[in-house]
């Protein structure tokens, strides 16, 4: 199809780039790592929204190629990074890639390419991406986890899955979707669904990352409820690789 050709051309002409959104550790107030978010700027200067081109790549059977391209772009960016050992790099992984025969190989290759940073790579998986081939995927994730890769469940609470995958898949982090953070109205009030998700995560010994924090009040609320990691415009927007390095120097 033509969208497939557009994606191929975009990759060939270097139209894709990666933005990195900082994640804050509320316990020590320091930068814990980043989530990699893909961007596409066409040759005419216009930007294609990531939700549009990611969905199109999935529909057109191109998401594996596009994610491999992303991993290459990140590795290139990382060549000039100065970050502490253990720095987290979150990668969004789609269902097709998890089920692809070369998935483990692709992640290992990426890990080797950025090994000089001694990073902690975290694979961000949505509930939707875990619906099919559960046994196969669980086995692969277990294998990668034994090699130091971490696994996060992303956009938690927004998918169509039941809670069964919380006991089926080996997980390290639960990322609370921004719609739940949005529901916070005061620092000392109650937000029943959000509070229950946080308790569930703690009971399962999962680390919690809350997404979409836009106000100091939301940050305060989450801190008071034992959430360790936050991500959102209030702390930092997604930044280009160069902007991230400047941001790190200015926010020690
Ligand atoms: O980055 P926002 O900044 O607009 O991203 C929109 C959506 O696109 C999010 O749901 C995000 O998870 C998804 N997304 C961004 N980059 C990637 C990527 O590299 N791979 C996948 N699978 N999804 C991505
Ligand atoms: O990176 P951020 O989540 O703020 O981007 C919001 C939207 O703006 C993205 O979904 C993307 O389509 C577009 N975008 C991303 N980076 C840039 C940029 O550097 N310049 C412009 N004009 N648009 C961008
Ligand atoms: O992978 P995921 O779907 O969680 O992607 C994160 C999305 O959330 C990206 O589109 C990113 O640009 C966006 N985002 C990050 N921080 C904020 C925020 O504080 N507010 C809003 N509205 N969106 C955010
Ligand atoms: Na994500
Ligand atoms: Mn998310």
Number of domains: 1
How does the major sheet shape up?
A: 8 strands, mixed, barrel
Second rung of CATH, namely the architecture: Alpha-Beta Barrel
How would you sum up the global shape?
globular
CATH homologous superfamily label: EAL domain
Average predicted confidence as pLDDT:
95
Helicity range: 40-55%
Radius of gyration: 18 Å
Q: Write the element-wise H/E pattern from the N-terminal end onward.
A: HEEEHHEHHEHEHEHHEHEH
Category by helix and strand content:
alpha/beta
Domain EAL: 1-252
Subcellular location: Cell membrane
Protein name: cyclic-guanylate-specific phosphodiesterase
Describe the structure.
- With 252 residues, the chain is an alpha/beta fold.
- The chain has one domain (2-246): Alpha-Beta Barrel (TIM Barrel).
- It contains 11 helices and 9 strands.
- It has helices spanning 2-12, 50-59, 63-78, 95-99, 103-113, 134-145, 165-168, 178-182, 192-203, 216-224, 241-250; strands at residues 16-25, 30-41, 47-48, 88-93, 120-126, 150-156, 173-176, 207-211, 229-231.
- Strands 1-2-4-5-6-7-8-9 form an 8-stranded mixed barrel, surrounded by 4 helices.
- Helix 10 links the parallel strand 8 and strand 9 (229-231).
- Helix 5 runs parallel beside helix 6 (134-145).
- Bound molecules: guanosine-5'-monophosphate (G) (3 copies), sodium ion and manganese (II) ion.
- Manganese (II) ion binds next to strand 6.
- The site of one guanosine-5'-monophosphate has 7 residues, from loops.
- It comes from Erwinia tasmaniensis (strain DSM 17950 / CFBP 7177 / CIP 109463 / NCPPB 4357 / Et1/99).
- This is cyclic-guanylate-specific phosphodiesterase.
């Amino acid at each position: 199809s033509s969208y497939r050709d557009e994606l191929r051309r975009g990759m060939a002409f270097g139209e894709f780039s990666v933005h990195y959104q900082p994640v804050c550790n509320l316990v020590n107030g320091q930068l814990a790592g980043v989530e990699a978010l893909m961007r596409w700027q066409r040759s005419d200067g216009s930007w294609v929204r990531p939700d549009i081109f990611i969905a199109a790549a999935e529909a057109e059977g191109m998401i594996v190629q596009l994610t491999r391209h992303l991993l290459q772009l990140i590795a290139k960016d990382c060549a000039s990074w100065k970050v502490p050992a253990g720095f987290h790099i979150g990668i969004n992984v789609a269902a097709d890639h998890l089920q692809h025969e070369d998935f483990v190989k692709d992640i290992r290759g990426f890990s080797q390419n950025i090994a000089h940073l001694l990073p902690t790579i975290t694979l961000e998986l949505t509930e939707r991406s875990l619906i099919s081939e559960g046994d196969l995927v669980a086995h692969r994730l277990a294998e990668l986890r034994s090699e130091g890769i971490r696994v996060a469940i992303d956009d938690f609470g927004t998918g169509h899955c039941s809670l069964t995958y919380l006991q089926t898949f080996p997980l390290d982090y639960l990322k609370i979707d921004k719609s739940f953070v949005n529901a916070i109205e005061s620092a000392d009030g109650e937000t029943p669904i959000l509070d229950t998700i946080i308790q569930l995560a703690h009971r399962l010994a999962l680390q919690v990352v809350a997404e979409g924090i836009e106000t100091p009040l939301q940050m305060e609320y989450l801190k008071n409820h034992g959430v360790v990691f936050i991500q959102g415009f209030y702390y930092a927007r997604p930044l280009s690789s160069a902007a991230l390095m400047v941001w790190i120097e200015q926010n020690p």
